[in-house]
Amino acid sequence: MRRALLIAAIILVALVVLISTVTGIVFVRPLPTIDGDDRLIGLHERAEVLRDLYGVPHIFARDAHDMWFLQGYVTAQDRLWQMDIYRRAAQGRLAEVLGEPALDSDRYMRTIGLTRAAKLDLSVISAETVAGLEAYMEGVNKFLQQHGESLPVEFTILGYRPEPWTPLDSLAIAKLQVYDAAGNYTQELLRASIATRIGMESVGTLMPDPAAVAAPGDARAWAMVAPYLSPSGDLSPSGASGAAALRGVLPGAGEGLGSNCWALSGARTKSGKPLLAGDPHLPVRNPSIWYELGLDDGAEMHVIGFSIPGVPGVVIGHNDRVAWSFTYAYADTQDLFVERQDPTDFRRYEYAGRMEPATFLREPITVKGRKDPVVQDVVITRHGPILTPVLKEQKAQLALRWSALDGTKTIEAVLGMIRAKSFAQFRAAAADFSGATLSACYADVDGHIGYLLVGRLPDRKAGDGMMPAPGWTGDYDWRGLRPAEDNPFLLDPKDGVILNANNRPVNGPTEAGWSGEWDPGFRYEYLSVALAGTADADVARFRALQNDITSLPVTRFRDVLVAARPSSLLAADAQRLVRDWDGVLRLDSAGAAVYEAWLARMCERTFRDKLGPPLYEDYLTNGRPTFALYALVARRESPWFVDLSDAESGGRDAIASRALDDAARDLAARFGPLTERWRWGDMHTISFEHPLSAAKPLDLLLTIGPVRRPGDGYSPNSGAYSLLSPFKLRLHASERQIVDLSDIDASISIIPTGQSGQPFSKHWGDQTTLWAEGDYKPMPLSRGRLGALEGRLILRPR
């Protein structure tokens, strides 16, 4: 007996040792070295990396080369696999490591050609910028040389090793982020699908413009292209299977989303100096889209902010004189052209009365598990790549014209803006940005505040770019890009308020920036009133606004719900909860739960039977059904308020009643029949899922959450969800920043997860609770204000 117990004990100890060893090798060994004194080949001079208590690295170098070198080095320490998967996504090389599930994504990205575009960028940017990219590359590769045997766990799981970094990798990732910010062509596809299947007159109803103008599009152009678009074809964005596959790895990729930013002049603040706030609402990802760090080259660069892993510099942040934040601006930078092929030679396309040859490329795609590569044939006309091969059931030859596919200096614009010391310098640097548009909120220590629409806009011969246009005539071509000076800007407004919440920044259709997919404006309307009534503002006031969960559409929709006629006691009780509710979308509100469940069902009852699958699903993915519904419910009667399966049912209140019955049944099935136990936060959650979380049981290790969330998609504190998968958040405040220009080192920030991309790091998810509770952490810039440090890494040249 004793012998058996002894053997069992030895086996148990051996298992513990084995598990501890494997855990150490696989999970702990890859964690970064943050303390010490080391020598690195490639550095010019002695430098330091100081890490604060949240793992944010502050790089203090003595020249620009070493600063960029160390940015590459420390980013690889924390986010190496994320960097690798981003470059693979951009380059269409995911299938090499993920296999067949990623093949459609690779086909799609090879067709669009972000790598081809990145090569063009490399040929037009300055030697100084190339030098920065190369220094960043050297830092990443130095880390790879040192730690090739202790890679993050994802490399072990997938069984591959990362290749050396190149400047082209950084530029391709930058193009991928521009792709995220553009995306207008998907709305063009949706409008075309609506017009083709149920008529052009429905486009303005289903895709309403915030200014309530007539439906977009050129009637003459539509008459020419409509015969080429298959009525049964899946034109819409979800019909691009590659785009859907890409979103499986990078959720929300290519779907322009939301954001808030604002600034108040010193006349409205307690300190007498400006305050600036920003919180971009971006797709839910893990690791975070953002990697925070400080950069100091010992000369002109002294900045802290949020970088894109894999790309040098920061995108949003502040230096010692200037602070800025961005929201997505939905100005239209993409157009689709229907091309006509030569019926006798498919290699040629018609243009201006003659046939001209297209460019044909063969893109071999390596697929894990396949012996031979898959070849993707790509056709490029004068308007851009033909997307038809990555659209389902569509024969029309659709070419994408997009400025990001040209050689651009966008990376230079970003690096120039972070060096700016004044609004004039900021605006001058932004002039090189193209491929997408951003709304910038600006403030500086000299007391100035400003707004700028960043991004060069197309100069169209005709049309507004909101629907596919005929490519064969030449009448709708671009003459090029409009001068950056055409973009709207505002400096030191008399009311002392700068605000953008994805709203249209101009007032008339002849102004640059009018055409686009602008936000309905509910967040802008609420925040503009709140800021107009603000005096003696301080950081606490800005914190409260960033976390505000007021949703303006609630009032109109709530009135409709209360006017409904429930057909069951359960639905009547649910309606009572809404009648007694104060309209605030709190976590523990039962009324909020009923309201949101009803809203989802009201959209379904109003639109689904008229659109039919799959157009309804496409509309939920890429349209704005709640905005369209908001306009429709202002009247009791509309052709949309009819149940096509029941000719006797009609009118807003009848549809609202059926939707209430649906919602009550949904909530009872989910939470039980006791309505007081229904809670909005229990159904409205956010889970930070890793790209490998889909593989069970890896989700237990790699997913952070779920976390309960208040608000909805129209709250300043955004909690937008897709009606295809209610009520799980699809976007969130991807970072929050508040900068006090009276004491720039007292700035605060937060990201939803943490600095590290490695599950066993203490900084994997360590900011999640703070973020969810509306709290922040310090964001100091100066060495003397960093406070307690987690690590001090001294690096010297060898």
General description of the model:
There is one protein chain. The protein is α+β, with helices and mostly antiparallel strands and 798 residues long. Helix content is 36%, strand content 20%. It has 25 helices and 31 strands. The strands form seven sheets. It has an eleven-stranded mixed beta sheet, covered by helices on one side. Strands 4, 5, 24, 27, 28, 29 and 30 form a seven-stranded antiparallel beta sheet that branches. Helix 2 packs across helix 6. The N and C termini lie far apart (62 Å). The model is unreliable at 13-25 and 232-239 (pLDDT under 50).
SSE topology:
Blueprint: H1 2-28, E1 36-40, E2 47-52, E3 57-60, H2 64-91, H3 95-98, H4 103-112, H5 114-124, H6 127-147, H7 153-158, H8 167-181, H9 184-198, H10 203-206, H11 219-225, H12 241-249, E4 258-264, E5 275-283, E6 291-296, E7 302-307, E8 316-319, E9 322-329, E10 334-339, E11 341-342, E12 345-351, E13 354-357, E14 359-365, E15 374-381, E16 384-385, E17 397-402, H13 410-417, H14 423-430, E18 437-444, E19 449-454, E20 458-460, E21 469-470, E22 478-481, E23 489-491, E24 497-500, H15 522-532, H16 539-546, H17 554-562, H18 569-579, H19 590-611, H20 615-622, H21 625-632, H22 652-671, H23 680-683, E25 685-688, H24 698-702, E26 704-708, E27 731-733, E28 736-740, E29 748-750, H25 768-772, E30 777-778, E31 789-797
Parallel strand pairs: 1-31, 3-6, 10-21
Antiparallel strand pairs: 2-3, 2-31, 4-5, 4-24, 5-27, 5-28, 6-7, 7-8, 8-9, 9-18, 10-17, 11-12, 12-13, 14-15, 15-16, 18-19, 19-23, 20-22, 25-26, 28-29, 29-30
